Amino acid sequence: MPVKHIVQTATATQQDPLWQQLLNHATQLATLAPLVQAALPAELRPHCQLANWRQNCLILTVDNPVWANRLHYQIPTLLKQLKTEPALYNLSRLEYYVKPAEFTTKNIRSNPAHQQHRLSSHSAELLRDSAEAINDPGLRQALLKLAQRSRQIN
């Protein structure tokens, strides 16, 4: 749901001053986000997001340190460009923080590197045979546990 829709709906139903302050800030961020995205170089846009605007400082999040480094070198140019926008005339600083893209169960399952590997019946049998020949109880238990996965998957 777009922020503007939430703001319009909430404005009609809430009269609390603190709530109004929060809604005004959300509206301001929704207005500034496209301006910031437009000012960013094309290669940085998918990796940078507006996080906050406070005390004449724009705060951005970057999804990894590589893009943070690239953003770092763009800050003087970005400041000059963004100060030309009427909504950001009083911009004095630009800060950024690395905030990795969130991992979700869906993302992990769809990533081929994280898919469960299948263990053949023959491999499971070899693991059980090896476990029987090992004196170390911890290693024996680990091999047997791994061999059991074959039954659960197949």
Give a short overview:
This protein is of the alpha+beta class and 154 residues long. The protein contains 6 helices and 3 strands; from the N terminus they run H-H-E-E-H-E-H-H-H.
Biggest sheet, in brief? 3 strands, mixed
Number of helices: 6
Structural class: alpha+beta
What is the H/E string?
HHEEHEHHH
Q: CATH topology of the largest domain, what is it called?
A: GMP Synthetase, Chain A, domain 3
Describe what this molecule looks like in 3D:
- This protein is of the alpha+beta class and 154 residues long.
- It has 2 domains: 3-107, 2-Layer Sandwich (GMP Synthetase, Chain A, domain 3); 117-153.
- Helix content is 57%, strand content 12%.
- A 3-stranded mixed sheet has the order 1-2-3.
- The protein is elongated.
- The two termini are 42 Å apart.
- 8% of the residues are buried.
- The mean pLDDT is 83.
Topology at a glance:
Layout: H1 3-13, H2 17-39, E1 48-54, E2 57-62, H3 65-83, E3 93-98, H4 105-110, H5 121-132, H6 137-153
Parallel strand pairs: 2-3
Antiparallel strand pairs: 1-2
What are the main properties of this structure?
154 residues, three-stranded mixed sheet, 57% helix, 2 domains, single chain, alpha+beta, GMP Synthetase, Chain A, domain 3
